Amino acid sequence: MMKKLLFVILIAPFLCQGLVENSPYSWKQKTRDGKHIFIMNALDPKQLERERKNVGNSLIYNKSGLYNIEDTSNPIWTIDWYTFMVYMSLDGSSIVRFNNHKKGDITFYKNGQEVNYYQKSDLINFMKIMEINNSLTYYESIDVNDENNILILETAHKEKYVFDLDTGKIIDSSNLHGIISLIV
């Protein structure tokens, strides 16, 4: 009896946390220039209806996409997919989506249209020997540089990539792990 109770006390919160984190919900993110807002609606109509009841219709946008802060009734562009998080350019015209299971693990969009994508195996040299289920484990750091309109990604194996946010193309890369292993 004590073992079962201990299991429920120690493990149940983690199981519930996973269920909550993986349930799509609506969210929004203001662009760093302060002129636009990116909206991500839950795809499930029942979830959207629950959110409308909780916060009121005026706070729920009809479509996911980018809106002008001063005109939230007409989107600048829209999307028809869901993700829990994006990285955006300063004005929100370019976004990066991680974990797009239908296409690539990193997908770049310009004005809501896909422009480029990569699989983890395109970027990480050690994928064949690694068995990691959580995609966030692959990436050590992800930063957006507004001045140069680039996304800088460093993998857990010290591979570094610099992407142009508008095109999704790799404009610079280095393999720090390879350099370290040559020295040792």
Task: Please provide a written account of the structure.
The protein has helices at 2-21, 45-55, 120-123, 176-183, and strands spanning 27-30, 36-40, 65-68, 71-78, 86-88, 94-98, 106-110, 113-118, 139-145, 150-155, 159-164, 170-175. 23% of the residues lie in helices and 35% in strands. The protein is globular, with a radius of gyration of 20 Å. A hairpin with a 7-residue loop joins strand 6 and strand 7 (106-110). The longest helix is centred in the first third of the chain and has 20 residues, at 2-21. By secondary structure, the protein is an alpha+beta fold. A 4-stranded antiparallel beta sheet has the order 1-2-3-4, with no helix packed on it. Strands 5-6-7-8 form a 4-stranded antiparallel beta sheet. A 4-stranded antiparallel beta sheet has the order 9-10-11-12.
Could you give the count of β-strands?
A: 12
Rg of Cα set? 20 Å
Name the poorly predicted regions. Answer: 2-21, 128-136, 178-184
* Major beta sheet summary: 4 strands, antiparallel
Biggest sheet, spatial arrangement of strands: 1-2-3-4
Blueprint of the fold:
Blueprint (H helix, E strand, L loop, with lengths): L1 H20 L5 E4 L5 E5 L4 H11 L9 E4 L2 E8 L7 E3 L5 E5 L7 E5 L2 E6 L1 H4 L15 E7 L4 E6 L3 E6 L5 E6 H8 L1
Antiparallel strand pairs: 1-2, 2-3, 3-4, 5-6, 6-7, 7-8, 9-10, 10-11, 11-12
Could you give a short description of this structure?
With 184 residues, the protein is an alpha+beta fold. It has helices spanning 2-21, 45-55, 120-123, 176-183, and strands at residues 27-30, 36-40, 65-68, 71-78, 86-88, 94-98, 106-110, 113-118, 139-145, 150-155, 159-164, 170-175. 23% of the residues lie in helices and 35% in strands.
